[in-house]
Each structure stands twice: as structure tokens, then as C-alpha cells.
């Protein structure tokens, strides 16, 4: 969550108390079709192909038979086959970098960093980018919004995603310094209609086509795929709560992190349960996961079956039978952890059949037991206390004296979904220290960051520190290793902090490079774990940890190695990759110095931006 979000929400709170490896793919086999038959079969790979295809392969590879050899001249020796390229290694070998401050992005030796896409850059075909002079409301609707956050890379049918792809990017909050004069003190009660439209255009999502030319990634201007979804756009509403929300909602905002689906859509997550930029809109329309199709085939839809709360991101697990589970966290102090299992299975053979897959299913909230076991508690009306007259215990972890329970009526499933926070508490879910990003590895292990909760008073096994200022990471395994599990086993993977700090609750247990406030987290297709931080940028914090940064965490040794450090005042967030892992896309949110102008050679204000990180030799990032 951007600290700017809290600023924008002050008034609202007051009102409402895997990659292909060369040589192993069929394309590589077909490329060798001119190699003589005996040469192909002599090697181990040819033998394997012969075993797979039997004698038919011999017939296909050439005429004649070995029985004709005595009657025909012996052929000249076949030329030696060229040596196979060495296997690609993804083992983490980069040299970690030290903690630092300064108005630059720092990457390891042998790496490059380029700015790809900054707030105010053109998106829609024909749009004029922000170049120092404020645009009008219509102009801002066609350029990049602010506070770049979660994002995901998508293949374009018929194109190589390692060189040409779609990038969907969240915009959490406005970069007010590139808007109209006075936008930093935006007040919806006094803003003009145009000012309100401008600020609302600065949130939402950008979808852009990008391409790599001569080794450098750029935005493909005037692509038909390029599109903005903003706080002024009208969205459809799906799922059981549509009866209370209505068929459409104007605007999405506070688009924090995000996720993807197996069928290639983008899940942008609203980290607010009202429209604090335009309070005239009913608050029930916000706090949802919004499904967007980067290809533009399906309409953008708010999926109410996934519950209404301060969504951070999503991550999915997919079983062999194509049953999916969507994991989510409520980024509030405190909040709960959720899982949604659709009623129907994902259909990999018919993309259109998955269009409304997220409108029906079962929503669960997690209970973390002290013995390291856990349960997924079903949030279905009529079960686990979700009835009329239910008693919501409130956020009891934040004070020594628990608040008085509040009566909440769950008469329908729509009531449960609109009041998901209360439903989770009533059902008995564990109140966690700001659940933020969640990620699922190729081995189906689930990791989740809990950024911090300084005011926590009452602790438990999953939130073991009072005044948890630096946060922690949990890891769990679903019982049976399946998305359908209703029980799991969990552990505290690490406690953030630094041993040089004075008190026990601040020291943590990190091995290697220390950090505060883990936020973004992702396991890449090769199973490597990356964490990004959103710590305070005050001198008292940066003097220990340096600026916010990105780290590799070894899942066995739990050693932390710093990979990237951001510029002054920023949060590091958003992480996606090219399929071959030679490119990492990372977001730099709300820098406060002159970056990225100081590397782009212009005099524009500091802006949030998406950067491209690559190795100079073109090998996989991190290796």
C-alpha cells in the first residue's frame, strides 16, 4: 500500500469512523530435420525420439533400409553435428549489493536498468504524453496513471512473448505532481468536475504492448491493444453480490497489487472499500477484484464472489484436474487471509468458457492454529455463524481490552460478500498483521508477506510480535498438495528486522541482508523467491536498511541477498518476467527526488515508473 493512499483516505475514514530451454523443445527437433538419419539416431536425444515414435521415425527420416547396404556404395562419413548449447542455468549467482540511499536505482554488477513506462506517458493510440504542461481531463484519460504497482506480462497470440507482449500495470494513486496545480491537496468536496475527472483518471490500469528491439524494450506506440481503465470507466458486476451492488459500477481505484488467471486475464485488486476520490458513488461498489482481459475480448467485470475488502493481490494454484484456487489478503491492520475455489473447473481448451468462472464458488478465510495447522473456514451464509444477528468481535488484536461486539446480519450470501471482513471475524479467522502479497510456487508452497502492524497488542502464533514494526513472512502447504484442501500446515518463514536494533520485537531473524516491511513477493517459474519492501523512508529507517529494495530469499537456507535498491522516497513493488527470465519488470513507486528525470535527461517532476532489468550478457536475471 502506498503511503499516499492513507493521505487520500483520511477524509473517508473520518466519515465512516516456467521457461523453454533450448534443445529440449519440439521446435528444436524439427529444426534439425536436415541432419542425416544415422547422425540423429546416434545420439542420446535421437534414441529417445526413436523410443517415442518407434520404427515410424526410421521410415520418416530417410529412404532405403540397412539390408541394401551391401549392394550400394558406403556413404561418405556424415559431418559431425554441431555441439549442443550448454544448458541454461537459473542458479542464483548474482553478487549482492549493499544497502544505500540516493536518487538512483542500483542493480548488481553486470546488470542494466532502463525506464520503460512512467506516469504521464502515452498509452492510447494517438495520445499526447505529459511533457511538463498539464493535460485536460480527456488527455489524462489516455496516458499512464500514477503510483505504478502490481503488473503482469501476457503473451500475444502468434508472437514470441520474450520479444513482444502485453503488460498490464496497476495505478494505485495519483502522481499529483504531474497533474494540475494544487492536485496534491485534492479535496473531492471542493474539486471542480474537471479536477475530479483528472484525479480519477490517474488510478486504475494501463494495458500496453511492448516489444524488444535490438535488445531494448519499448512501448509500441499506437498498438490496438493499448488501453486505459480508470476511475471514470464503467465496469460490469458479476457474482452473488450483484443484487446489492447493481449491474454496473463507475470507476475502479486504489488498484494496488494484482494477479493473473490460467486463462490469461488480469485481476486488479481494489484496496479500498469506498470511493474516497468521489464519495458521491455508493461505497458498496468498491473493494472488489476486477477481472480485465488484456486482449480486450471480455468486458472488465468486478467479481463479487471473491469478497469485498482491502485487496492486495491474488495468486492461483491449479490442480491436475484444473480445479483452481485464488489466494488473497486483506491489507488492513489487521486483516485476514482468503481463498476462493470456483465451482467449475478451468477449461484449457476453450478460453471463452472461463469468462465467468469467478462468479460462482466458495470463499474461505484462514485460521492459523498455534500447533502449525490451519483450517480454511467457509464463508457461506448459514455456516460458521454467518446468520442474522451474528456478533462481530471486531479488531480485538489492537488493544488490551477487546471492543464490544457489533451485530451484523448475514441474511444472504450477498450480505456475506459485501461484509467479508466482518464475516471472516465471525467465522473465527485469524487477524493478521496486514496481509499483503501472496505467491504460489511450482511446488505449490504458498508464501505471504505481512508488512507490519506497529499497534498490535494481542499476539498469537502466526503474529508472534507485539508492535510488529518490521513485518514477517509465512509459508504453508495445503494438505494433500491440492487447491481443494480445507486444511493446511504453516510456519513463520522469517521475521523481518535487524539485530542492531535495540528491542527484541525489532531484531528479527533474517540471515544475510536485512530488511523491513516485506510487501511484494513472487516466485518465478524456476522456483526462485523474490521479495520487495515498503518500509518507512524516514532517516531513522534508511540509516539501518537503506532505501526500499528487492531481495532474493533462498527457500532452503532462508538467506536474504539484496538485488536492487530504489531511489529516495520510493517503494519497490510490482514484479513480472519474460518467460525466458532474461527480463524482469519492476515498479518504482512515488520517488521523491528527481528520478527518473535524472536518467532520462529531462526536467520533469519525479514520477512512478516501470523499469526493465536485464543482464548485460543476456542470460537469465539472477543467475
Automatic annotation (TrEMBL):
PROSITE patterns to which the protein is assigned, alphabetical: TAT (PS51318)
InterPro entries named in the record: PhoX, TAT_signal
Biased composition (Pro residues): 74-85
Basic and acidic residues bias locations: 1-13
Superkingdom of origin: Bacteria
Pfam families in the record: PhoX
Region (Disordered): 1-20, 65-85
SUPFAM superfamilies hit by this protein: Calcium-dependent phosphotriesterase
Protein name, UniProt field: PhoX family phosphatase
Organism of origin: Ramlibacter cellulosilyticus
Amino acid at each position: 500500500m502506498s503511503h499516499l493512499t492513507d493521505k487520500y483516505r483520511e477524509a473517508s475514514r473520518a466519515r465512516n469512523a516456467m521457461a523453454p530451454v533450448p534443445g529440449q523443445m519440439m521446435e528444436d527437433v524439427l529444426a534439425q530435420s536436415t541432419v542425416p538419419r544415422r547422425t540423429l539416431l546416434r545420439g542420446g536425444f535421437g534414441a529417445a525420439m526413436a523410443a517415442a515414435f518407434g520404427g515410424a521415425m526410421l521410415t520418416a527420416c530417410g529412404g532405403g533400409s540397412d539390408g541394401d547396404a551391401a549392394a550400394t556404395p558406403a556413404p561418405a562419413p556424415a559431418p559431425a553435428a554441431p555441439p549442443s548449447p550448454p544448458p541454461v542455468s537459473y542458479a542464483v549467482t548474482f553478487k549482492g549489493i549493499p544497502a544505500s540511499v540516493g536518487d538512483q536505482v542500483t542493480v548488481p554488477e553486470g546488470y542494466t536498468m532502463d525506464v520503460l513506462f512512467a506516469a504521464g506517458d502515452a498509452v492510447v493510440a494517438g495520445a499526447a504524453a505529459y511533457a511538463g504542461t498539464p493535460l485536460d481531463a480527456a488527455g489524462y484519460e489516455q496516458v499512464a496513471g500514477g503510483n505504478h504497482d502490481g503488473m503482469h506480462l501476457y503473451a500475444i497470440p502468434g508472437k514470441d512473448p520474450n520479444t513482444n507482449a502485453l503488460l498490464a500495470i496497476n495505478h494505485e494513486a495519483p502522481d499529483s505532481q504531474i497533474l494540475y496545480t494544487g492536485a496534491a491537496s485534492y479535496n473531492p468536496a471542493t474539486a471542480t468536475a474537471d479536477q475530479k475527472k483528472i484525479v480519477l483518471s490517474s488510478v486504475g490500469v494501463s494495458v500496453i504492448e511492448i516489444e524488444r528491439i535490438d535488445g531494448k524494450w519499448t512501448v509500441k506506440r499506437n498498438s490496438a491493444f493499448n488501453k486505459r481503465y480508470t476511475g471514470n470507466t464503467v465496469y460490469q458486476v458479476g457474482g452473488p453480490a450483484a443484487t446489492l451492488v447493481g449491474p454496473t459500477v463507475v470507476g475502479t481505484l486504489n488498484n494496488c497489487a494484482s494477479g493473473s488467471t490460467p486463462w490469461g486475464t488480469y485481476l486488479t485488486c481494489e484496496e479500498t472499500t469506498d470511493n474516497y476520490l468521489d464519495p458521491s458513488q455508493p461505497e458498496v461498489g468498491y473493494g472488489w477484484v476486477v477481472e480485465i482481459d488484456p486482449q480486450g475480448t471480455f468486458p472488465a467485470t468486478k467479481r463479487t464472489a471473491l469478497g469485498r475488502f482491502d485487496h492486495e493481490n491474488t495468486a492461483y494454484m491449479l490442480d491436475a484436474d484444473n480445479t483452481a484456487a485464488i489466494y488473497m489478503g486483506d491489507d488492513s491492520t489487521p486483516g485476514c487471509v482468503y481463498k476462493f475455489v470456483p465451482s467449475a473447473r478451468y477449461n484449457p481448451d476453450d478460453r471463452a468458457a472461463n469468462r465467468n468462472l469467478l462468479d460462482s464458488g466458495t470463499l474461505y478465510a484462514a485460521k492459523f492454529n498455534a500447533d502449525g495447522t490451519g483450517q480454511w473456514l467457509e464463508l457461506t451464509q448459514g455456516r460458521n455463524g454467518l446468520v442474522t444477528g451474528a456478533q462481530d468481535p471486531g479488531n480485538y488484536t489492537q488493544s488490551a481490552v477487546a471492543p464490544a461486539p457489533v451485530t451484523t446480519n448475514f441474511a444472504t450470501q450477498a450480505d456475506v460478500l459485501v461484509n467479508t471482513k466482518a464475516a471472516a471475524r465471525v467465522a473465527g479467522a485469524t487477524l493478521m498483521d496486514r496481509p499483503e502479497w501472496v505467491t504460489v510456487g511450482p511446488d505449490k508452497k504458498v508464501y505471504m508477506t505481512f508488512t507490519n502492524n506497529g499497534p498490535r497488542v494481542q499476539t498469537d502464533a502466526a503474529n508472534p510480535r507485539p508492535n510488529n514494526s518490521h513485518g514477517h513472512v509465512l509459508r504453508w502447504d495445503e494438505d494433500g498438495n491440492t487447491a481443494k484442501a480445507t486444511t493446511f500446515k504453516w510456519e513463520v518463514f522469517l521475521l523481518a528486522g535487524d539485530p542492531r536494533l535495540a528491542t527484541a520485537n525489532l531484531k528479527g531473524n533474517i540471515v544475510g541482508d536485512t530488511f523491513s516491511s516485506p510487501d511484494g513477493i513472487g516466485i518465478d517459474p524456476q522456483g526462485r523467491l523474490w521479495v520487495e519492501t515498503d518500509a518507512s523512508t524516514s532517516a531513522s529507517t534508511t540509516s539501518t536498511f537503506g532505501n526500499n529494495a528487492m531481495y532474493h530469499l533462498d527457500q532452503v537456507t532462508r538467506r536474504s541477498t539484496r538485488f536492487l535498491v530504489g531511489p529516495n522516497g520510493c517503494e519497490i513493488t510490482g514484479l513480472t518476467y519474460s518467460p525466458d527470465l532474461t527480463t524482469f519488470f519492476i515498479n518504482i513507486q512515488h520517488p521523491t527526488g528527481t528520478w527518473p528525470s535524472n536518467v532520462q535527461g529531462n526536467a520533469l517532476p519525479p514520477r512512478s515508473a516501470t523499469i526493465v532489468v536485464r543482464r548485460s550478457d543476456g542470460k537469465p536475471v539472477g543467475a
